[in-house]
Design brief:
single chain, mainly alpha, 2 helices, about 35% helix
Length: about 110
């Protein structure tokens, strides 16, 4: 065993020893505060989005100014028809198989 793998293993163990994974007791009759939908507050400068010279910096807007569909874009798509769900699953599997074959052809 090399020194690097030994130190990685120790760091990995320390990570799990410092965290507590016990279930936290639920607080009754206390409403949870509304979490913000976006990851940055309003008027935050969004670095890297302004790629044109001489333009003002791009600022984040308040959550209310973004369309509602934006907050649901990362949720998995729900299919009404089971045939559509099967077709979507097959397409994902086919894409993954092609990626795997292409990767193995480069090895």
């Amino acid at each position: 065993m090399s020194f690097v793998s030994c130190t990685r293993r120790q760091a990995f163990r320390a990570l799990f020893q410092t965290r507590s994974y016990a279930a936290k007791p639920a607080k009754a009759a206390e409403p949870a505060p509304a979490a913000p939908k976006s990851s940055c507050p309003a008027d935050t400068v969004l670095v890297g989005l302004n790629y044109l010279k001489g333009q003002p910096p791009v600022l984040a807007k308040p959550d209310e100014e973004y369309p509602e569909w934006l907050w649901t874009i990362l949720e998995p798509k729900v299919h009404d028809d089971p045939r559509k769900a099967q077709r979507a699953k097959r397409r994902i599997e086919t894409k993954q198989r092609i990626k795997d074959e292409n990767f193995m052809s480069t090895q």
